[in-house]
Design goal:
219 residues; mainly alpha; two-stranded antiparallel ribbon; two-stranded parallel sheet; 9 helices; 4 strands
Length: 219
């Protein structure tokens, strides 16, 4: 008997579903991903994958998230360490680690980010068991630390969120994406974790393609 919610669903059915969906996505997006990789190399200097720090996954374990590079090389380090970007970094933190007009984004990066195509390599993370197709956001360590200082009331929700694997898509992604600030986002993530089920996962999966096509809420 297959349970459709709770711990049994997370440990067995959800993992099997992740593998099946990841393989389907791999087959669908393999050629588009190759084309994207070539375009990234031809239009800007740097690696194909984004050179970003590790993210926080389930139970607080860190992992390397694979993403197509949509910004200039070393964008993450430049924002945090280059004095010329000091004011921009403060704005970045103030706006829940999102920037409306980010000068680090490459010409093709705007298109990639709008339609969430930079997320496609996370299929690798799903197959490795580090991520799920549906789950909470995978936060940067400094992001999670600083945002809990800014929003101390979110500490309880953060503990709940870290019980689950982060996802390629999730409840907050289909509820506004970058328009949702941390304090609202973490509540949505905690709500998702508290109500994980096959039904809720399928609802989010069904909504995701439309969000990708329209680019609604993207930065």
């Amino acid at each position: 008997m297959i349970l459709l919610n709770g711990t049994s669903y997370q440990q067995i059915t959800k993992r099997l579903m992740d593998i099946v969906f990841a393989l389907i996505l791999l087959a669908i997006f393999l050629i588009p991903s190759v084309i994207l990789a070539i375009m990234i190399k031809l239009t800007s200097k740097g690696p194909i994958f984004a050179d970003v720090p590790e993210r926080i996954g389930q139970f607080g374990n860190t992992f390397r998230m694979y993403k197509f590079r949509s910004m200039i090389e070393n964008a993450h380090k430049i924002l945090r360490n280059d004095p010329r970007f000091k004011e921009l970094y403060e704005e970045y933190k103030k706006k829940s680690y999102k920037l409306q007009n980010d000068p680090r984004i490459t010409p093709i990066g705007t298109f990639i980010r709008k339609h969430s195509l930079d997320e496609l390599p996370q299929i690798i993370n799903v197959l490795k068991g580090e991520m799920s197709i549906v789950g909470p956001r995978a936060y940067y360590p400094d992001e999670l630390t600083n945002q809990q200082i800014k929003y101390p009331q979110t500490k309880v929700q953060v503990k709940k969120v870290l019980k689950a694997k982060p996802g390629i898509t999730g409840l907050w992604q289909v509820s506004g994406r970058s328009e949702v600030h941390f304090d609202e986002r973490i509540i949505l993530d905690a709500e998702y974790v508290a109500n994980i089920s096959l039904y809720n996962d399928l609802k989010i999966i069904i909504k995701t393609p439309l969000i990708m096509l329209t680019g609604k809420g993207a930065i």
